[in-house]
Amino acid sequence: MSAPDSGARRSGSTRRQFLLGGAVAGVGAAAAIGVDLALNQNDSSAEQVSVPLNGDTVVPFFGVHQAGIDTDAQAHGTFVGLTLREDVDRDGLRRLMRILTDDASRLTRGEPALADSEPEMASPPARLTVTFGFGPGFVARAGGVAPSWLAPLPAFAIDRLQPEYSDGDLLIQFAGDDPTTVAHATRMLLKDARSFAEVKWMQHGFRRAYGSVAPGTTMRNLFGQVDGTANPSPGTRDFDTVVWSAEGWMAGGTGAVVRRIQMDLDTWDMLDRTGREQSVGRYLHNGAPLTGTDEHDDPDFEATTAIGFPVIPEFSHMRRARSDDTTQRIFRRAYNYDEPPTGDRVSDSGLIFVSFQADVDAQFTPIQRRLDELDLLNEWTTPIGSAVFAIPPGCAEGGYIGETLLA
Amino acid sequence: MSAPDSGARRSGSTRRQFLLGGAVAGVGAAAAIGVDLALNQNDSSAEQVSVPLNGDTVVPFFGVHQAGIDTDAQAHGTFVGLTLREDVDRDGLRRLMRILTDDASRLTRGEPALADSEPEMASPPARLTVTFGFGPGFVARAGGVAPSWLAPLPAFAIDRLQPEYSDGDLLIQFAGDDPTTVAHATRMLLKDARSFAEVKWMQHGFRRAYGSVAPGTTMRNLFGQVDGTANPSPGTRDFDTVVWSAEGWMAGGTGAVVRRIQMDLDTWDMLDRTGREQSVGRYLHNGAPLTGTDEHDDPDFEATTAIGFPVIPEFSHMRRARSDDTTQRIFRRAYNYDEPPTGDRVSDSGLIFVSFQADVDAQFTPIQRRLDELDLLNEWTTPIGSAVFAIPPGCAEGGYIGETLLA
Asked: Is B42:B58 a contact under the CB 8 Å cutoff?
């Protein structure tokens, strides 16, 4: 695969999915299967059909934007927040990001890291992406000018933040369809980073397995809700406007919010189906707004019941999240988490909420403020972690992530 | 799908893989893809090829043996050890196992549990299996006669066992290719069990994703070692002899050993490739014994180097695990684990070692005793959890798991 021209802006849809040996826009692995099948189409014996392997699918690391943002969300996500060691200066940051970039580009191709202690674990790549983000401490250490929004979010009344899930100088998001590949890549890059930074927090999350449900299906969170319907679609101008920054060293980058939201499934159980649908403003079976029939129908916030109440309640999550101000939009890319319960509980579950937006203050914070003030879901959800990172743009082969800040 | 005749013994290979709407032995999803493809073979446009969904694949719950033992290992495994509440008597155990059997059979078909609070989460099944095991406390509470081997393993010198990963009255093993399906099934069954038992421990593990590597590929553990080569093959007489019990209420059942083995990847890193190969007795690149070229070659323990040392060292894991006594064999079905590291470490990883064997004392314990005495791998591995369970046989539709003990 040839390196992209670093000057050429590539659309989300063309960078999202490439296959070894040739680029196929949009359909990704489906196309690879098609090739496989064409070779087998005269073979009428079902037993001899080869199983197409998703493992070989490569998402290109190099590009105008970092991968792992407009990439169709993979099944597994590992999020790591690191704290820089005291003695790491601007030169050290540059060395760190060169090493991490080099190994991330290798691993995402399914090749071993430079000093890979388990080279056989690097394959298959299975759509592995590695995405880097800088916290306020990183940008300060680099002597750079931080975006105005690069700071901890304002304190919200519903927050019960724990330091072990919050903040950090450097974010590394690992995402891929194979959990073993994700685990190996995580270990390799944390070894690279060890002399520069230590792990502050790590969170493992999951969505549906690749090939388990139809591509393009909106995920459900562990409340059973269809989650992320209002997302802009990668590859559209709408998406580009919501997500990509155009400012200074951040041009082609974006802002990331990572929040750990505990979801109390044990008390959620006490709510009946109607109550659950009212709390979010959507039907559970297909995610349609309570005023519609299909998931992507526009909600009608003016519609009222026979006795005059809004069909979509004022206190519903959807109503509170939505603004008439079209700049208040974000791109969500969340993962579920499910940890062993303690005490008398039967679950310790929730959502690793991840959103990307060009300007966190202008786009994310107003939404969260409305939800903080009034959102019925707050009864069962508690933010226990929160972090904001500047995701720098991508780079061309030979370059490194962060070069627009550190070069 | 029709219910199996409870009197008919079915071989491992025929029960391992069924598809909705028809049974296909051995090749499983590959055959389903074949059908899908046949429908598409005149369609030359790659963009219109439908992606075959593994999600719809069902592993039958009912049968002579419980599923999840001879089933090709799924990508995700969740293991839960429960402690029975004080007031649960034999009648209570029967009620508990009827409820659990009923909901497990529904969920493994991709149908909601009886009182499913999130019915949309039950689909797709993605080869979900649920397997139950009884600890010594369960059998005693039932007033039954326990197999002679149903007790904690003897203490080994290398053990550093922690109660939060050890023992328990009831084991539930959830395994499936979709992590969201596994999480939902876990929650539903723990809700069923809540008034009878509380969670003592829970462990999440993973292997390669379905469709990520070729079917039949032996897994690698996080040391990068090919792990499980010597396993007997489900569907063979050899497997049946090693795994299935023929005794009393356990006829058609087996014994399970579940041990949490911490693997110190941070110190493992200090060992070079040759040292790693000597420690296990196999080549890292393909798992072949150091005296062979292919993974499944028989090792030659008599072979010596030019200067007279054994090619496969006496202290190697493979040499110590192997016995001339052919009754000392087990069937391994392990999962990797990878948890957030603490302190200055970059990993907290290891193996959820799971083995099935008809007689734990006769088959497993002698192997473990030899490994305890001398196994170079002990330098980097520490057992931190251990539990033994009696896995009762399967049941026919209308019956329940444990009926041979409780009826």
From this structure: no
